[in-house]
Amino acid sequence: MMSRVKQRSIGPARWRLLLCGLALLTSCSQEPLTADPNAELPAPRQSSMSFTSTRMRDIEAPVRFELKGTVKASLSDVLAFYRAELGKRNWQEKPDDAVVTADRVRLAFTSPKGPALLTLERAKQETNGKTEVSLVQRNAEAAAKANVLPISGQARLVFGYLVPDVASLVINDRTIKIAGGENHPQMLDLPPGTYSYELLVSGRPVRTDTVTIASGEAWSLHDDRKPSQVY
Question: What pTM, to 2 d.p., does this model score?
Fold first, then answer.
């Protein structure tokens, strides 16, 4: 009934203006996403992105490369863009690991360099159609050269410090000694899970924290900050 009243209150000319306006808005909102040709990982021109890489000593290529930012488009349009662009780069989507909802997408890929992960989320408190993007690609060859590539089905922890005294890592009911002075990072492979750990220098605790690790990942433990993923 209210709908019929509105129809009578707008004359033919006003209806034409309204329809033209709606058509213009629709065409603007559906502007195709185009890839930035200068971006190392696919990124739409209609976006604000930052790129970070993780490098290991004496290894030229990055072990891990990440793109994060916001795209001025709906989640479905951004998903379509990335599926098309990643396909052009011979990235293979792993359907069994896919999570696709109205507000969030998580897709795992195998890429020519190694495993990759795309995460999309509808930007919170946004009414003009913005999507948050995280795209991570890992370089298996570089990780192997840096000795941070975990064994199959495990995750790897990397630790070791430039300290004058002997240090130690207490984790998973083990105490691992770390030699003082300039030392090479040590590695520990563990099953995926969440672990509490403690770092000590000369018997005194310097950091107590937890780290959550997934199969195939490598994380670095620090005495002055939270654990960080390196692969």
Answer: 0.78
Q: What is the pLDDT of residue 203?
A: 85
Where residue 57 falls among pLDDT bands split at 50, 70, 90? confident
- Contacts by 218-226, CB closer than 8 A, 24 or more apart: 218/143, 218/148, 218/149, 218/150, 218/155, 218/156, 218/157, 218/158, 219/155, 219/156, 219/157, 219/158, 220/157, 220/158, 220/159, 220/185, 221/157, 221/158, 221/159, 221/169, 221/197, 223/161, 223/167, 223/199
- Domain spans, the chain: 31-143, 150-229
Of 50-59, 89-98, 120-129, 204-213, where does mean pLDDT reach its minimum? 120-129
Instruction: Decide: 194 and 211 in contact? Cβ < 8 Å.
Output: yes
Name the CATH superfamily for 150-229.
Carboxypeptidase-like, regulatory domain (2.60.40.1120)
